[in-house]
Design a protein that fits this description.
Blueprint: E1 12-16, H1 17-34, E2 37-38, H2 48-57, E3 62-63, H3 67-75, E4 80-83, H4 92-99, E5 103-108, H5 111-123, E6 128-133, H6 150-158, E7 163-169, H7 181-204, E8 211-214, E9 231-232, H8 242-246, E10 257-268, E11 271-274, H9 278-281, E12 297-299, E13 312-316, E14 321-324, E15 336-340, H10 344-348, E16 353-358, E17 361-367
Parallel strand pairs: 1-16, 2-9, 3-4, 4-5, 5-6, 6-7, 7-8, 8-9
Antiparallel strand pairs: 1-10, 10-11, 10-15, 11-14, 12-15, 13-14, 16-17
The protein binds pyridoxal-5'-phosphate (PLP).
Length: about 375
């Protein structure tokens, strides 16, 4: 392919292929070392090509959040998909169609939903693999482990004809609000302890808990310490982003995804306008141990190896990024910059394809086949 990053129309989402592969290999190595199965969350890349690379490296399958994504990965031949999402039983026909093609499992976090799933599955002579989602502190969904009837609820779910109870699953999303390494470590420890205690209680009443699944990129570094866990499901680690750098889950050099953007205006000495707005970078903020603001980490040229903290993207319109710069900053109209976004998963969802690159060279155009498949 002859085009390179100096000439393609911008903004474009690019992925450093060598870094992507290194990130995939190193998370796989971490899982293997810990004796835990890796099942990456594919919401980050939404690309069958990347899922295949993860599986070739040793992943047991993938996760999807939504059935629409799972359908795309099923079409691409992925054989084992878990949806750690409380899929509504109204979608039973789609789940059953997927069951005909691959191994699929979902989560449930209430007896009501579990009963509904069990009924539709029984009626069609099927069984659906489920894990019970446990709320380990994020307070999004999940059974409250401190509720007096938590174990009873799980026992009843496990006993429902029509469901195949696989075990317990959690997502410590509150890790993204941690202010220190220590706090992250405590979140990971507490997550494992909660799941372990529930698993012991269930096993004590002769319920098999085959799987204990945890997953997030910031807590993945503590997997060695998470006793009793059988599976990890990080997603973001394939690309990383500015937030993961802020949470010290990655170094700047590990970030595989960037947005290439052009300076389109310099209306004042201390202001430049770039052509990547919220429709490319998204409006997601940045997280990390130290408070930070702005919309991405800007590298002042395509060749620059370090970000330039003096270029601060302070606001976004849909198609503009407005950055403050020192009045003597050399950026001029037509110059190209590289932006490591605050949150790579949502950037992917806005791009038709990812350009895999090596330096300035474009190696491959990789379709984001499941982009927008959010239902
Ligand atoms: C249920 C679930 N599992 C796993 C993940 C992956 O976590 P991360 O994005 O931190 O890699 C997510 C992310 O949102 C999630 O919601």
């Amino acid at each position: 392919m002859s085009a390179d990053l100096r000439t393609i129309p911008t903004p474009r989402v690019v992925v450093d292929r060598a870094r992507l592969h290194a990130n995939i290999e190193s998370m796989q190595a971490r899982a293997t070392r810990a004796g835990v199965r890796l099942r990456p969350h594919a919401k980050t890349h939404k690309s069958p090509a990347i899922a295949r690379t993860q599986i070739a490296a040793g992943a047991v399958g993938i996760c999807c959040a939504k059935l629409g994504e799972a359908e795309v990965f099923a079409d691409a031949g992925i054989a084992d998909i878990r949806l750690p999402y409380p899929v509504n039983p109204a979608n039973a026909a789609r789940v059953q169609a997927l069951q005909d093609r691959l191994r699929i499992s979902i989560i449930v976090d209430s007896l009501d939903a579990a009963r509904e799933w069990a009924t539709v599955m029984r009626r069609s002579g099927r069984r659906l693999d489920v894990l019970v989602k446990v709320d380990v502190g994020f307070h999004r969904c999940g059974v409250d482990p401190d509720a007096p009837d938590a174990v009873d609820t799980m026992r009843e779910i496990a006993g429902l004809d029509g469901l195949g109870f696989r075990g317990l699953l959690s997502h410590a999303g509150h890790a993204y609000h941690a202010r220190s390494e220590r706090e992250l470590q405590e979140i990971a420890a507490r997550e494992a302890a909660i799941l372990h205690q529930l698993a012991v209680q269930l096993r004590d009443i002769s319920i098999a808990v085959e799987e204990v699944s945890v997953g997030s990129t910031p807590t993945a570094r503590f997997i060695d310490e998470q006793r009793g866990v059988t599976e990890m499901r990080p997603g973001n680690y394939v690309f990383f982003d500015r937030t993961q750098v802020g949470l010290e889950a990655a170094a700047i050099e590990d970030c595989a995804m960037s947005v290439i953007s052009t300076v389109v205006s310099r209306p004042a000495p201390d202001r430049v306008v770039l052509d990547a707005g919220s429709k490319t970078l998204t409006s997601d903020g940045v997280r990390g141990f130290s408070p930070a603001s702005g919309h991405g980490m800007v590298f002042p040229s395509l060749e620059a190896t370090q970000p330039d903290a003096s270029i601060a993207i302070e606001r976004l319109s849909e198609e503009h990024a407005v950055a403050s710069v020192p009045a003597d900053h050399p950026l001029r109209i037509g110059d190209r910059v590289r932006i490591v976004p605050n949150h790579s998963c949502v950037v992917t969802n806005l791009a038709d394809e990812l350009l895999f690159v090596d330096g300035l060279s474009i190696l491959e155009r990789v379709p984001v086949a499941a982009r927008g498949r959010n239902s």
